[in-house]
Every structure is written in structure tokens, then in C-alpha cells.
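Hey there, shall we discuss this one?
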Amino acid sequence: MKIKECVLIEPFICDVDLPIVDVAKKLRTTTLRHIFVVNKDNEPAGIISVLDINNRLVAEGRDYSQTLAKDIMSKPVESFNLEEDTSDVGQKMLSKAWAMSPVVDENNKMVGIVTINQVLKNEPR
């Protein structure tokens, strides 16, 4: 089975140049604890978690008014293509303990998020 056959979550993203205050406000509106960061071409560039905001901004005493998403994001971020097999994706996600990963099309544009639950649910038993 291919990733394109899974139910994908709508991309929860922000731009690399978004001020971190706005990133935090976006995260506050959802139950997700991570946001994927994309470049101007909508390609995955990194990921920011609420823990990243705490550890890389607050705990370090950085000036939040001058900090952008690209300044604290974890990078690089691995993504999966719509044509990849769910068995390969599932093995990789499990081995790295990822709950979710970005999914890209043939042009490396982010089209959604796949969860480990969705990948495993679609695997033959």
C-alpha cells in the first residue's frame, strides 16, 4: 500500500520567516504539539515543538520579538513521498519513534501529515 492511500492530516505549517510569537499563537489553537516549517516553495524545512520554544527561546533568555521560526526549528526534517510504501514508512517511523511525518508530492511540496497510527492501520495483518 502507498502513502497516498492513507488518510492524511491537513498540513499544520508555518513559514520559515514567521515570528516565533506567531508560531506560538498558532500552536495554541490546536492540540498538536508540533508545527512543520516550510520555505517559500512550501517544501519542509524543519519542525518546531512546544518544547523547542521552551528550551531554545525561553530557557536561553532569547529576545522573542526578534526570533523567527527558522532560528529555533529542528532541521533537517525527513518527509515521505506519496508513492512510498506504508511498510517502509512504518518501519522508519517506528525505528525513530516519530508520531507523525510530513508527506510531499513529486515536487517536494508538502501535501499533508501522516501519523504512525494511520500507517500501521493500513498495513496487512
